[in-house]
Each structure stands twice: as C-alpha cells, then as structure tokens.
Amino acid sequence: MNAESQPNSAINRHHLDRFRTKPAGLRELIQSFLRTTPDLLQELERYCQRQDLENAQNLLHALRGAALSTGATSLAETCQHLARDWERSGSSALSLESLPSAVENARNALQRFMDELPAAQTPSSYDARPITLRFVEDIASARALVRLELTDD
User: Fold this and answer.
1) DSSP 85-131
2) Could you tell me the pTM of the whole model?
C-alpha cells in the first residue's frame, strides 16, 4: 500500500463516491460528523471515567452508526471491538484504548475527501435546510435514509 492511499484506509471511499452526485448534501453530512464527534468522544470519556457501562455502550453504538453512515469503516470497526471488549470485561475496565486515534484518523480522512468535492457553485436547498446526522446501523433502511437526506427536494 502506498503512502497516499494509507491515510484514506480510514474511510470507505466507494461508499462515499456513490453520493458524489450530490456534493452539497455529502459535504453537509461529513461536516455534521466532523462537528459532532469531538463532543461524542468527550462524553464517552466521561462515561468511561465513571465506569458507566450502559451509557458508554449506548454512545459507542451511536458513534459506530455515525461512522458507518459517513463511510468511516475503520472507526466503526474500532467501536465494535471496544463494545465486545467491554461486554467481556463488564464495567470494571472501561477503556477507550485506540478510539481517540481512530476518531482522528476518520476525521482527517473525511476532511481530505470533502476537500476533493467540487466547490458549491450556487446556493442549494441545503443552505436553507440543515441536515441532522442520524446515528444508524449499516442496514438497508439506514442507507435509504442517507440517500433521502442527500437527495434534492
């Protein structure tokens, strides 16, 4: 693997390329992820410090869904591995291990991908209608929801 493609391994470019025909919507989806992940990570860190397994698992599940929705598959896998580890150990050992670096790698790769999108040429319906990042699993209905969000009215 060459040095150029390695940083992008944090995301599934094929997943994101399917939405390139709607660059404004895709840009807003990625921006929403970039805006929300720092707060999610901080909240998750607080739950881990308090050894609050239930809330930590719920938030980790939400982060995994957001990662899958934006094509950040490496981050989603890290979330899944952590969830399994937490299940095995119980609330006695809630640790984020490699999650912060996986979040940062995903954010950097998504930012680079977004930078490659064509610049907005005219105001779109997305300027008047903010998009909300939904935390969903990678299932058919979730993919349909993302397509719906990226479709012009």
Assistant:
1) HHHHHGGGG---TTHHHHHHHHHHHHHHHHHHSPPP-S--HHHHS--
2) 0.73
